[in-house]
Design brief:
- The protein has 13 helices and 18 strands.
- It is of the alpha+beta class and about 475 residues long.
- The strands form five sheets. The chain has a six-stranded mixed β-sheet, with helices on both faces. A four-stranded antiparallel β-sheet has the order 11-13-9-14.
- Strand 4 and strand 5 form a beta hairpin.
- It starts with a helix and ends with a helix.
- About 40% of the residues are buried.
């Protein structure tokens, strides 16, 4: 029977074309204008699972967008792997910065991807990465290589906070029971340096509103006499960091655990080229909290960033107004032991306290999630490590990630399972940005590696 590599070689063109077709669907969960497209994408995912060989596939309704469930149960006595992914995507804005339309995928050869990379919204986050698992399952079923049971849960609201997922998990605990949860929504260090994400930061996301006068005012008649909400908001945001780029919110760092010198030295062994990092981003210097290097600032330290800010007149030409309102969206990345709800509370109390007279402030919570750390001594991690060794020819590097997947801790809480983060994307994939892409080599390498995880995990689970 063919190995994963030979099976992929025989079906490569079809695998790529199927992914391109999925990427053409604009499944933007955050914009109601695309609700029908999101529903259509759920149906396409269900059909893909049926085609791959799942015996039972269902598009499960929720209060929001559907969750697609599929399973292939060989024997209840065998281990069960639950695969999680999401079929919804970020908005493509600003569209004018894309080199090609975001939902008309194209393949372009690049220096980093000589075999070609697929450029489209969702290519890496997360359609390309969850679809690797669908194609890996197809190989294992058609070639009689599936060693255990498998379940799929693919949701359509990850990019808006997975608002329906908790209720679904609580209502379907028995159905979703498993021995390990497998997620590919992360990346690796480089094509020649495989890595497994062993930690994720938490997230607390808010929107703030500053209100001044009851209407927009003429800046000549009222300027200098009435508080300008945009000016005030800018000052308030600026005050959230001190001169060392440390967050100034009282209580923010109370539960942050400092890593030991030994742990930081171990992290420093991971390959990192600062000059290449700056060149890739077209910046002449890095920035962040004093006392920490770049790879610590974006993984083991909490942060606070403004994701968007607006107010007043932003159209063509000039309109001299003092706006009535100003707004900002702010995300805080958190580290283990920081509770996202507690951080939201201390942020809200502080932001309201620092508002000057003449304006009113409101803080609207959006969503959040806890940080997560995967123990590397468990068999799930060891099976993943062996799988990477098999296909890459080298042991993967355990690596803390800077991003957040808020549902990871929810899975552990509700399903009492450990999570393995087997990502095949790269930092350069431009997820959430214009020109998002996913290397065809990375896509196919994921399909090749995943079946070995099933094999090794089943062997280890059965002793």
């Amino acid at each position: 029977m063919p190995s994963p590599g030979s099976y992929i070689a025989a079906h490569k063109e079809r695998f790529v074309q199927e992914l391109l077709q999925l990427l053409r669907l604009p499944s933007i969960s955050g914009d109601p204008a695309f609700s029908q497209d999101v529903l259509e994408t759920a149906g396409a995912v269900a059909q893909a699972l049926i085609h791959a060989g799942c015996d039972n596939v269902e598009v499960c309704d929720t209060e929001g967008y559907p969750i697609v469930y599929g399973e292939k149960i060989l024997d209840p006595e065998l281990p069960t792997v639950l695969v999680y992914g999401h079929y919804d995507v970020q908005p493509p804005d600003p569209v004018d910065l894309w080199d090609s339309p975001p939902f008309e995928p194209v393949i372009r050869e690049t220096e980093l991807h000589p075999e070609g990379a697929i450029y489209a919204r969702g290519a890496s986050d997360d359609k390309g990465q969850f679809y690797m698992h669908v194609k890996a399952l197809e190989y294992m079923i058609r070639e009689n290589k599936l060693p255990c049971n498998v379940k799929f849960m693919v949701e359509g609201e990850e990019e808006v906070g997975s608002v329906s997922l908790e209720e679904f998990l609580k209502a379907n605990r028995d159905r979703l029971s498993n021995d390990i949860i497998l997620i590919s929504d992360t990346g690796m260090i480089a094509r020649d340096i495989p890595s497994i994400t062993t930690g994720l930061r938490g997230l607390s996301y808010v929107e703030v509103e500053v209100t001044g006068p009851n209407r927009d005012l003429h800046s000549g008649l009222y300027g200098g006499a009435v508080a300008n909400p945009i000016n005030v908001l800018a000052k308030m945001i600026a005050s959230l960091h001190d001169e060392n780029n440390r967050i100034t919110i009282p209580g923010f760092y109370d539960k942050v655990v400092e890593l030991s010198r030994e742990e930081r030295e171990l992290m420093a062994e991971a390959p990192f080229n600062l000059e290449a990092y700056k060149k890739a981003l077209d910046i002449d210097a890095v920035y962040g909290e004093a006392g920490y290097v770049t790879n610590e600032r974006n993984t083991i330290r909490p942060t606070l960033d403004v994701n968007g800010i607006w107010g007043g007149y932003t159209g063509e030409g000039a309109k001299t107004v003092i706006p009535s309102k100003a707004y900002a969206k702010i995300s805080m990345r958190l580290v283990p032991n920081q509770d996202w709800r507690e951080i939201m509370d201390v942020f809200t109390a502080h932001f309201e306290k620092i508002a000057p007279p003449g304006v009113r402030v409101s803080v609207k919570p959006h969503h959040g999630g806890q940080a997560y750390v995967t123990p590397i001594d468990q068999i799930g991690y060891q099976a993943a490590s062996k799988a990477y060794e098999k296909t890459f020819g080298k042991t993967p590097v355990p690596q803390r990630g800077g991003g957040s997947i808020p549902i990871v801790t929810l899975f552990e809480q509700e399903l009492e399972s450990k999570i393995i983060l087997m990502g095949f994307g790269l930092d350069s994939d431009a997820i959430h940005s214009p020109n998002e892409h996913f290397g065809i080599w990375n896509y196919l390498k994921g399909i090749e590696t995943i079946p070995y995880f099933y094999r090794y995990f089943t062997e280890m689970s059965r002793g």
